[in-house]
């Protein structure tokens, strides 16, 4: 920005350390991926606020993907709104937007009977997430714009996989000591 002689509009990404209760590979909070740790966020926003070529316009966070409960989103939103207030007060800035990421669950299969909940289901619609998040944001900070990244929630159920079995094989499976212990039936699918 300095080299171009412009002021860059910036939203810093913060890791709010909220557990999202999803598959470990889908977590993006609690040190899982990118983001300034929440304990260092106030100082990081302070540094950015002092730089003449930076205009702080927002904060970004993401807690994970395929999250099947609304409560982690509400917990993260409450923490984020409290942090936004602290940042604005401490550094005399007014943030325009809050990007809460996404990760809204889609159903990979329908649960039947008494099966336990898993992250492959989607017990809520996007409307349920929106109602909880929207109500909290409207009450706490009506003028703060909300940015979302719906991701798989808008694209995940848009395709079909068509396949057929072309060949079948039977393979011996060996124990650790090398003895054959079972037959494994494999289907080659194309």
General description of the model:
This protein is an alpha/beta fold. It is 28% helix and 25% strand. The protein contains four helices and seven strands, in the order ββαβαβαβαββ. It has helices spanning 38-50, 71-91, 126-140, 152-155, and strands at 8-15, 36-37, 54-60, 97-102, 145-149, 165-174, 180-189. Strands 2-1-3-4-5 form a five-stranded parallel β-sheet, with helices on one face. The chain has a two-stranded antiparallel ribbon with strand order 6-7. A hairpin with a 5-residue loop joins β6 and β7 (180-189). The N and C termini lie far apart (50 Å). 21% of the residues are buried. The mean pLDDT is 80.
Largest sheet: 5 strands, parallel
Determine the structural class based on helices, strands and strand pairing: alpha/beta
The parts where pLDDT drops under 50 for at least 5 residues are none
Order of helices and strands: EEHEHEHEHEE
Tally of DSSP β-strands? 7
Percent of residues in beta strands? 25-35%
**Number of alpha- plus pi-helical segments:** 4
- Whole-Å distance between the termini? 50 Å
List keywords for this structure.
25% strand; two-stranded antiparallel ribbon; five-stranded parallel β-sheet
């Amino acid at each position: 920005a300095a080299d171009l002689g412009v002021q860059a509009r910036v939203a810093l990404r913060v890791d709010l350390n909220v557990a999202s209760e999803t598959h470990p590979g889908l977590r993006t909070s609690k040190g899982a991926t990118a983001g300034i740790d929440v304990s260092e966020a106030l100082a990081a926003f302070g540094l950015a606020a002092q730089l003449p070529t930076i205009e702080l316009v927002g904060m970004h966070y993401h807690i994970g993907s395929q999250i099947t409960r609304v409560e982690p989103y509400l917990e993260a939103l409450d923490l984020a709104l409290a942090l936004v207030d602290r940042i604005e007060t401490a550094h005399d800035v007014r943030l325009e937007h809050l990007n809460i990421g996404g990760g809204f669950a889609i159903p990979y299969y329908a649960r039947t009977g008494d099966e336990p909940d898993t992250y492959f289901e989607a017990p809520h619609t996007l409307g349920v997430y929106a109602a909880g998040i929207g109500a909290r944001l409207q009450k706490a900070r009506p003028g703060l714009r909300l940015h979302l990244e719906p991701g798989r929630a808008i694209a995940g159920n848009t395709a079909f996989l068509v396949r057929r079995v072309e060949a079948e094989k039977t393979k011996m499976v060996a124990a650790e000591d090398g003895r054959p212990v079972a037959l494994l039936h494999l289907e080659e699918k194309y």
